[in-house]
C-alpha cells in the first residue's frame, strides 16, 4: 500500500515560484472506482474547498485522475487530467487553463501569478465585436434574442442534440461552461461561428416552427 497526496498551486510566470490557487473555490477529485462504493460513489468523488486543495489517500495502483477546478466569479469548471504514478517519490505536472473574459475579482487573482493579456481594452473590444456580430447576423436573418428563447423551449432530447452540435462545430473563440454538479450546459451565442448559429437557427425552426 502506497500513501500519496496531491496539492494544487499556481506557478508565477516570471519567478517560477508557487502561488496560492485562491482563484478557485473548490477542486473535485474523481478517483478510481476502487476507492469507494460504485453505487453511492462515496469517496470515489472528493471535493476540497480550501487552497491548496490537498488530497491524501492510500492505494496500490496507478491511474488517470480527473480533477475539476471551479473558478470564482462564475469563471467556470475546468478539467485537468492527472497521471497518478509512482515512478518518482515526488513529481510535478503543469496544466494550462484559459479564462475567457474573466470578471474583475477573478482578474485580480489571476494577476497574482503574472500579467494578464488584453487588460486595457479587452472589455471594450469585446463589446464592439458583439455589436458587429449582432448586426451581421441580423442581416443574415438570424434573430439572436429569438434564437436564445427558442433554445430554452426545446425538449430534453433536442437539447442534447444542440449540445452535441456545439461541441462538434465550436471554435477556439467559443465560450461554453459545463456545470457538472448542476447538470447544466451554458454557451455564449455571440462567440459561436456564423455557420453554427445558422445551424442552430434552422434546427429550432424545424423543431418549433417559424
In words, what does this structure look like?
- It contains five helices and ten strands.
- Residues 118-128 have low confidence and may be disordered.
- Helix 4 packs antiparallel against helix 5.
- 30% of the residues lie in helices and 25% in strands.
- The chain has helices at 104-111, 122-139, 144-152, 156-169, 194-208; strands at 2-6, 9-11, 18-20, 24-30, 45-48, 55-59, 63-71, 77-84, 176-179, 184-187.
- It is an alpha+beta fold.
- The longest helix is centred in the middle third of the chain and has 18 residues, at 122-139.
- It has a four-stranded antiparallel sheet with strand order 5-4-7-8, with no helix packed on it. A two-stranded antiparallel ribbon has the order 1-6.
Largest sheet: 4 strands, antiparallel
How much strand?
Answer: 15-25%
Helix content: 25-40%
Number of strands: 10
The rounded Rg comes to 21 Å
Q: What order do the helices and strands follow? A: EEEEEEEEHHHHEEH
Structural class: alpha+beta
* Order of strands, widest sheet: 5-4-7-8
From the N-terminal CA to the C-terminal CA, the straight-line distance is 63 Å
- The average pLDDT value, as a whole number, equals 80
How does the overall form come out from the CA principal axes? globular
